Amino acid sequence: MPASASCPTWAALLGLGLPLVLLAGACSSAPTKAPGLAAAPLSQRLLQELEVEIGEARCNSDAQCHSLAVGAKPCGGPEGYRAWSSQGSDGAKLKAIAERQAAARRAENEASGLMSNCAVEPDPGASCQTGRCSLRPRTSSPVKSAV
Question: Each residue of 94-106: pLDDT tens digit?
Answer without folding.
Answer: 999 999 999 999 9
